[in-house]
C-alpha cells in the first residue's frame, strides 16, 4: 500500500487547527516520516498510526518546525519496544542540532544517522536535491522500482495464464514467448517532497514527473515580497513547480498562520498548476497514492 498521511500543515507557529509539520508516507513495507515538527507524536495517535510503522525519518532542514518532534517520536518508539533499525537522514550542516535532539530521546533504538551534503541517492529508492532556503535544505524523492504492465489480450493470445505469468516475469521468456511480447515497461511512480525553499533547480527537478508532489506553500501571491525575503514559495510558485514538472497531484502545505482560510492559496496554485490536481492539505488528511498513469 502506498499512502500519504498528513500529520501537520502549519509553518513556524501552529494554530488551533494546524499542527506543526509532519508527514507519514506508507511506501509498501516501509514507513517514512518526513519533517517531524513539535507534536508529531500526538498527531500519530490522532491519525491511528503506530510509531512502530516508522523505518526512516527524512528531515529537510533543521529549523524547529521541521525537526523538534524528533525526540518525542524516537522516545515513543523505544516505549513501544521497536526493534527494527531506524534511519535518520538530514543535511550535514544540521549535525549538531540532530545530535542534540537524538541525545534528548530515550536511548535504546537501533538508530542510524545519515547526514548528506550533496544531491544524489541516499538510500534504496530515495534521492535528495538541494533546495534554496536560509539554512542548508534538501528535498526528497522516493521512487517505486520500474515494473512491467501485462497486456491481457496478448497474454490470452499466447495462452499464458495463472502461475505462468509470474514465471514469465521472473525468467524473461516462456517457450517462444518473450516478456516483451506480452507486456510493456512501466516506470516506477514518484513521490516528491519540497519544503522550505525559493524557486530553484532542485525543487524543479523534484517536481519533474512526480506522481504525488508535496510542496510548501507558505505565502499567498499577494505576500510574494515576504516569500522572497524568507526564501519560501508562494502558492502560485508552488503551482508552477507542479505545472512545469508535469506533476499529477500537488499537495500544498506549510501554511503561514496568517491565513485562516487557505482556499485562496489553493486557487492561486491551481491557476499555475497546469493539469495537476491541487489539494490544500488539512491535518490528518489521508491521500492515497495515485494509480499508474
Ligand atoms: Zn518551515
TrEMBL record:
Co-factor binding details: Binds 2 Zn(2+) ions.
Pfam family, one: Anti-Pycsar_Apyc1
Positions of transmembrane segments: none
Binding site for Zn(2+) 1: 61, 63, 133, 196
Residues binding Zn(2+) 2, per UniProt: 65-66, 196, 254
Alphabetical list of InterPro entries matching this protein: RibonucZ/Hydroxyglut_hydro (IPR036866), RNase_Z/BN (IPR013471)
Keyword vocabulary terms for this entry: Endonuclease, Hydrolase, Metal-binding, Nuclease, tRNA processing, Zinc
Keyword Transcription regulation: no
Cofactor(s) needed for function: Zn(2+)
EC number: 3.1.26.11
Residues forming the catalytic site: 65 (proton acceptor)
GO MF: 3'-tRNA processing endoribonuclease activity; zinc ion binding
Catalytically driven reaction(s): Endonucleolytic cleavage of RNA, removing extra 3' nucleotides from tRNA precursor, generating 3' termini of tRNAs. A 3'-hydroxy group is left at the tRNA terminus and a 5'-phosphoryl group is left at the trailer molecule
Assembly: Homodimer.
Record-stated family: Belongs to the RNase Z family.
Function: Zinc phosphodiesterase, which displays some tRNA 3'-processing endonuclease activity. Probably involved in tRNA maturation, by removing a 3'-trailer from precursor tRNA.
Protein name: Ribonuclease Z
Organism: Arthrobacter pityocampae
Amino acid at each position: 500500500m502506498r499512502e500519504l498521511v498528513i500529520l501537520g500543515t502549519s509553518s513556524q507557529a501552529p494554530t488551533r487547527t494546524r499542527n506543526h509539520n509532519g508527514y507519514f508516507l506508507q511506501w509498501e513495507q516501509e514507513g517514512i516520516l518526513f519533517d517531524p515538527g513539535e507534536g508529531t507524536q500526538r498527531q500519530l495517535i490522532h491519525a491511528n498510526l503506530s510509531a512502530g510503522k516508522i523505518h526512516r525519518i527524512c528531515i529537510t532542514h533543521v529549523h524547529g518546525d521541521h525537526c523538534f518532534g524528533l525526540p518525542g517520536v524516537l522516545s515513543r518508539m523505544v516505549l513501544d519496544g521497536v526493534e527494527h533499525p531506524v534511519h535518520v537522514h538530514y543535511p550535514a550542516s544540521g549535525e549538531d542540532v540532530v545530535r542534540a535532539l537524538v541525545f534528548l530521546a530515550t536511548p535504546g533504538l537501533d538508530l542510524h544517522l545519515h547526514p548528506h551534503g550533496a544531491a544524489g541517492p541516499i538510500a534504496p529508492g530515495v534521492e535528495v536535491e538541494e533546495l534554496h532556503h536560509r539554512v542548508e535544505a534538501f528535498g526528497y524523492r522516493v521512487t517505486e522500482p520500474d515494473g512491467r504492465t501485462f497486456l491481457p489480450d496478448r497474454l490470452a493470445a499466447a495462452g499464458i495464464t495463472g502461475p505462468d505469468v509470474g514465471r514469465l516475469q521472473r525468467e524473461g521468456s516462456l517457450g517462444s514467448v518473450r516478456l516483451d511480447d506480452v507486456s510493456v515497461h512501466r516506470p516506477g511512480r514518484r513521490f516528491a517532497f519540497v519544503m522550505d525553499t525559493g524557486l530553484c533547480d532542485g525543487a524543479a527537478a523534484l517536481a519533474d514527473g512526480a506522481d504525488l508532489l508535496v510542496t510548501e506553500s507558505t505565502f499567498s501571491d499577494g505576500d510574494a515580497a515576504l516569500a522572497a525575503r524568507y526564501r519560501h514559495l508562494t502558492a502560485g510558485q508552488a503551482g508552477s513547480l507542479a505545472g512545469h514538472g508535469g506533476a499529477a497531484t500537488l499537495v500544498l502545505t506549510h501554511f503561514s498562520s496568517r491565513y485562516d482560510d487557505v482556499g485562496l492559496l489553493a486557487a492561486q496554485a491551481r491557476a499555475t498548476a497546469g493539469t495537476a490536481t491541487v489539494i490544500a492539505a488539512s491535518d490528518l488528511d489521508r491521500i492515497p497514492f495515485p494509480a499508474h498513469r
